[in-house]
Design a protein that fits this description.
Family: Belongs to the 5-formyltetrahydrofolate cyclo-ligase family.
Structural class: alpha/beta
Number of helices: 4
Cofactor: Mg(2+)
Enzyme class: ligase
GO molecular function, one term: 5-formyltetrahydrofolate cyclo-ligase activity
Distance between the termini: 31 Å
Strand content: 15-25%
Shape: globular
EC number: 6.3.3.2
CATH class: Alpha Beta
């Protein structure tokens, strides 16, 4: 089996080979698949992320959620607790900054904080996933730590179909996802998750 580092490298290379047209089509397919599902579930407060490194573009989904008056929160690197995330309300006029990984995030403003227990769902990025719902991230453990919190809401991964692998090497700290959305399907897994 490939190591986690090898898998990350291979899947990120695959993802980077998608053309602009393929990315645009995949993004629209994801919105068409996911938005009706989120509305059906009556999600009112959702955490998302801004795409980076060839990830599916989340901006059209965010804009669609805004049109339905759904509060969107984005992750921010916790300033005092390394390796942890905060979630801040994100709206069209949010002042933004760039974190140490080169990813845009809302400027820290405690009045915009959305506590974990107020979120209905966290949509997480990932590098790869398998048929058991295991998720391979970028290696920082930010989402695993967040999802391990007792007050964390349900989570769903977002990925291109090319990010699916048959099996991932799993570590004790990895938190599997009960659902992963791709432009082609909404995969549901029978993963043990205390927050569902």
């Amino acid at each position: 089996m490939e190591t986690r580092a090898e898998l990350r490298r291979r899947i990120r290379q695959q993802r980077s080979k998608l053309t602009a047209a393929q990315q645009t089509e995949a993004t629209q397919q994801l919105v068409d698949l996911l938005l009706p599902e989120l509305l059906k579930r009556q999600v009112q407060h959702i955490a998302l992320y801004l795409s980076n490194d060839g990830e599916l573009n989340t901006l059209p989904l965010i804009q669609a959620l805004w049109q339905h008056n759904i509060l969107v929160a984005l992750p921010v690197l916790h300033p005092f607790s390394p390796g942890h995330l905060l979630f801040l309300h994100y709206h069209p006029d949010s002042p933004m900054t760039t974190n140490r990984y080169g990813i845009a995030e809302p400027r820290l403003d405690i009045s915009q904080l959305v506590p974990l227990h107020k979120l209905d769902l966290i949509l997480t990025p990932l590098v790869a996933f398998d048929k058991q719902g295991n998720r391979l991230g970028m290696g920082g453990g930010f989402y695993d730590r967040t999802l391990a919190c007792s007050n964390a809401p349900a989570a769903m991964g977002i990925a291109h179909e090319c990010q699916k692998v048959s099996a991932l090497p799993v570590e004790s700290w990895d938190i599997p996802l009960p659902e992963i959305a791709t432009p082609d399907a909404l995969y549901q897994f029978s993963t043990p998750n205390l927050h569902l």
